[in-house]
Write a structure and sequence with these properties.
The structure is a homotetramer.
Chain A (H helix, E strand, L loop, with lengths): L4 H14 L1 H6 L2 E4 L6 E5 L15 H23 L12 E10 L7 E11 L3 E10 L4 E11 L1
Antiparallel strand pairs in A: 1-2, 2-4, 3-6, 4-5, 5-6
Chain lengths: ~150, ~150, ~150, ~150
Amino acid sequence: MKISAKVREYLREVMEERVAFNHLLGIKFESFDPDAPALRFDMRPDLLGNPSRRILHGGVISATLDVVGGLAIMMKLVHAAPPGADGSDFPNMGTIDLRVDYLRPGRGKHFIATGRVVRMGSRVAVTHMELVNDDGQLIATGGAAYMIG
Amino acid sequence: MKISAKVREYLREVMEERVAFNHLLGIKFESFDPDAPALRFDMRPDLLGNPSRRILHGGVISATLDVVGGLAIMMKLVHAAPPGADGSDFPNMGTIDLRVDYLRPGRGKHFIATGRVVRMGSRVAVTHMELVNDDGQLIATGGAAYMIG
Amino acid sequence: MKISAKVREYLREVMEERVAFNHLLGIKFESFDPDAPALRFDMRPDLLGNPSRRILHGGVISATLDVVGGLAIMMKLVHAAPPGADGSDFPNMGTIDLRVDYLRPGRGKHFIATGRVVRMGSRVAVTHMELVNDDGQLIATGGAAYMIG
Amino acid sequence: MKISAKVREYLREVMEERVAFNHLLGIKFESFDPDAPALRFDMRPDLLGNPSRRILHGGVISATLDVVGGLAIMMKLVHAAPPGADGSDFPNMGTIDLRVDYLRPGRGKHFIATGRVVRMGSRVAVTHMELVNDDGQLIATGGAAYMIG
């Protein structure tokens, strides 16, 4: 269950560059573990939510969890059928719904979001996600359902 | 149940300028209706999610719905106790959790997010939110719970 | 967009009799409106949750909302392709996920749950639901995603 | 972090007997682990949902997950301040919202629901829950927020 260097590069380019809003958030790959892929982003002033406390905007958290949930599914799909060189067969996926539990204020220097697939059907997949800060504190958890294929 | 010009200006400054990530998203006030405040943002290339289709990133949608849900509560709190001139008494609120249902691909020139309070307790409030595009099509709905006070 | 008497009788039998747990809850049809079907159930001592206050168990609320969400979809499916006399073609559906917002304590003599489809795809449908008591007070709202076909 | 025999008996009586709808569902204590309490119930014909397949009604699942989430919090509260002999100080709690992900059809002879607290505030607590069948298969997961105190 290894991901080839070529597929890694493809995934990295899609997630970090081609998805424009991921690029705006500064999302980078942290782990290509096919069972628990992870993304990382650094704290930046323009990601803050509360004007008086230095904590992440809830929308940055929900966005990142949605992205890493989708990534967890993509890892499974890409492993089953690696994409062509031209990337034309980017797996077709759509988020059906998303839930985020905000557990602690989003304080930290950087953050790591991890996704895991808990149901992989032929048409619908469900993932659980979590966000921790650089101290390993659990900031938020999430669940999402995606339509695939 | 009118919002004074001074409070409007205060809310506008907080929502559009002081919350950095709102500013990054380009969120602007669309309506100060105290029962259904609305925000607006324009489509921009860096808000796209899918590299091959011109649709909003799901994270932009979840972020905007979270913001407008919080705004709906803030309108109630601010109306009950208008903030001081220095903005020191920015209402203290935290999102407990958020759910988003993605109903249609996020296509459009601009988008309007509206929030409504469905439960206003002394400690917890719950809101329903929706996002429509410039054709009035319903793109997403959401629900969120917030801790207040 | 009328539902024939025969189909009504079929739906009533399925929802009230053949789904055993609906029968245990005492769920009855209140409205066959194809856009907003409604179910009704009476308060009973064994549906109580809190031992010291006479309020509905949250599980009765989540169960009823799940049922009426599924019913809202079934009304659309049955209208498009009425079931055979033997009921063999009971539409095949599965709940993907469910969210319930509990807005007020579940006090009342009877309760009415209403469901509405907000997204009807070929494979996934999403509904919004609400529960009111006999005074018309909103007790809970919900959202759910279902796999169909 | 042990739960005394007296408190166990109190919790058992509340959960199994005094909460009427729990009794109707046939919910029994499986584990008093203060960090991961568990409940158990047996499959019964009147808990079925689908008339043609022998699977649990989704409402039984959502009800049980809500109950075990509340129990996980109660274990923390009871441990901090054991209830009086008369049970008058039954901890005051209310579910704010609940999400359930239905992962597999609810087949089995009996089911075990486990709850864990992921956020314990002074006013709001959040739990994660799961339901497995007698083969250890994960049937559903859930998350819920509760108001306490």
